[in-house]
Specification:
This protein is mostly beta strands. 5% of the residues lie in helices and 37% in strands. The longest helix has 7 residues.
Length: 136
């Protein structure tokens, strides 16, 4: 498998990940809808220690008391989220920023209690009302 690389819309920010993704997750929570401008967000979950910015800078928005959103300081493309309280040591990369988003498919859907009625999760993926460990 080719290394995981990605970039923002303007190309000034680029990143690399030194290991394979741990999971690909579709999140249907209301915050993700608002932050992405879409019906849900899809994240490629990687180890934070294996993720590095190769170029550019991020700006940070503290979305909740536990979650920070990181985006390109130049064009505003959302690049990754971090939630060290709940998901220690992980970075959640926005799928659309990866070089080849078609090679990743969500295997988990979380916060389905907030899922829009017309959204159909992909076949075979796990569905959780909230997130794993908070009830299914």
């Amino acid at each position: 498998m080719n290394p995981l690389r990605g970039r923002c819309a303007c190309g000034q920010l680029r990143y690399e990940v030194a290991s394979a993704p741990l999971q690909v997750v579709a999140c249907h929570c209301d915050l993700c809808k608002r932050m992405s401008g879409g019906p849900f967000s899809v994240y490629v979950v990687v180890r934070e220690k294996d993720f590095r910015l190769a170029a550019g800078e991020t700006s940070r928005y503290q979305a909740t008391d536990r979650t920070a959103k990181h985006f390109c300081a130049s064009c505003g493309t959302p690049v990754f989220n971090a939630n060290p309280a709940t998901y220690k040591g992980l970075a959640m990369l926005y799928l659309g920023t990866t070089e080849d988003p078609g090679r990743y498919e969500p295997r988990m859907n979380i916060f389905c209690e907030s899922k829009l009625e017309w959204v159909t999760p992909n076949a075979g993926s796990q569905l959780f009302s909230r997130s794993p460990g908070e009830g299914s």
